[in-house]
Amino acid sequence: MKEKLKVGVYGITGCAGCLLTVLYEECFKELIELVDLKAFPLVRSDTYKGNFDYIFIEGTVCFDEDIIVLNKLRKRTKYIVALGACSCTGGVPTIKNFLDQEKTLKLVYPAHNELKEEDPTPINKHIKVDYYLPQCPPSKKEIVSFIRCIAKGEVWKDYNDPVCVECRSKGNPCLLDQNKICLGPITLGGCGALCPSNDVICYGCRGPFKDANLDAYTNMLKKMGYNKKEMHDKMRTFSGLQFRDQEGGKTWLEK
Amino acid sequence: MQKILLKENLNELIKTWIKKYEIIAPVKESKISRFKKINSPNEIYDCLLTDIPAKTHFMPEGETLLEHKDKKTIEIEGKIKKTILFGLRKCDLNAIQVVDKVMFDKNYINKRKNTTLVGFFCENPDKYCFCNSMELQDFYDLYFYPQGKNYIISIGSKKGEELVKHLPELKKEIKIPNPKNFKKLNTLDIEKYYRDERWKADVRKCLSCTACTAYCPTCNCFDIKELINSDIKTIQSKRFHSSCMSKNFSLVAGGKSFRDSRTSRFKHFVFHKVLYFKKQKGRPMCIGCGRCLRVCPTKIDWVNTINKMNRKPLFNFSRFSFKKLKETNK
Questions:
Q1: Does one domain contain both A58 and A147?
Q2: Planar angle of CA A49, A50, A55, nearest 5 degrees
Q3: Interface test with chain B among A150, A158, A165, A211, by most B beta carbons within 10 Å
Q4: B8: distance to nearest CA of chain A, Å?
Q5: N or C: less crowded end of chain A, CB within 10 Å?
Q6: Is A255 within the bounds of a domain?
Q7: Which residues of A touch B210 (CB under 8 A)?
Q8: Based on the domain organization, do A123 and A45 belong to the same domain?
Q9: C-beta separation of B244 from A165 below 8 A
Q10: What would the DSSP string read from start to end of B1-47?
């Protein structure tokens, strides 16, 4: 019998929703049976000081302490897995990058002006990340198949098509035809088109699709009668930073 | 051979079929019409053209093809009951004929053998239909044509004949006309338009959302994904719809993609549908149902683009032909 992989699940600044997803029966069963769960600070109080094979990390880098934690974890493991939208693309906290920094700090923490803040960034700006499991919260199916995949020693393949591919092959009515801003065509798929299947627009929580045609998309929305602000509000919800990078620097979103 | 049936008696005929067969017919479900199993003839939705084509019956999403266990591979055969596909339009029937020429796996062939195709004349075509330009053939087991108070039923095969054995025969055969069209594709010979600049206006609008291929009744490309079971010993190979409009489609080891630009992907889609398939199999792949035009979120109309090129062909100034000219002059 092969020795089981040593796995840890950690979180930095975030809502802990992704860690809770791992605690669902489907995922947690796989974690206990297929791999050796060494550390999980959310549910285990004992401390493990050895090295890991895989570490799952949830959350965005928002404070200088987060960077220290990340660098320490990186030295102790072979592979880092970014878990959830926050660690993959920055998630909701990155909205702060597009607002007045001081105002927001005073608004949210009126009494704590001594906080040392960083600009909210995804973890791959600070350490090397090997695998990404995006989505907010991450899909249980994907976590389960990822754990099975590493336990068997197979190569993990990222899904690399826009949300529309799965949505269209499911046969959903298109939300763009109903004059709603759906981010499907420019968002990475793999979620099984969860929101559009339930008549809710795609908010782009899985991050941008690299080969997307942003010009065509923005032109289409303009024809539908939306202005830039409405468009940007939707795009900045989960991955504003990535969409900004995709069009080269700050030119596109600030236009 | 043709048979005759009063329009009022159609429901009764279907009821007799339901006892022996599984019937799949157009049904409207949450704003979209698709082919689905019905239990009574009242459920049938009389629509212009179903949004989702009948190919989902033969190739459903996520169908298991193979199972691997202990170094052995088992081929899983798609077994279905005897089925009637009811309410297919002329374009849908031809689409099945096209896919028959390409698909050869056991799963597909088994399903195809057990299915009887019952066509229906297209009375009110969509504004995007251009089927008369696409060299459609007569391909059916049964084909209903409404005339006055009656349906004229043409019989195309033995499978179809069994279904309407008891009906009276028509003495004088009637020639069934083609459906009406509002749109037309002016030429099928589009090879000379490959280097035309006017494709770019279309491609600039393309989102690569792959709706055209998902809704096309003749698009049969698929991807096989291996999914590991919970005991990590059995692995299942499943078939998922795949699209040539996505960059991922032509990706090979090493990260190279043969059709890197959106322009080349879009052109290949159109040229394969109209020209390349005709060269290989003798008929165009496109059957002119216009679903790709109807479903596109940015309303790309490649039929109009070809018609424009046909009306005003540009002289080809590409570098390649220029060089050739120089060489021949010498």
A1: yes
A2: 95
A3: A165
A4: 33
A5: N
A6: no
A7: 161-162, 164-165, 168
A8: yes
A9: no
A10: -EEEEEGGGHHHHHHHHHHHSEEEEEEEETTEEEEEEESSGGG----
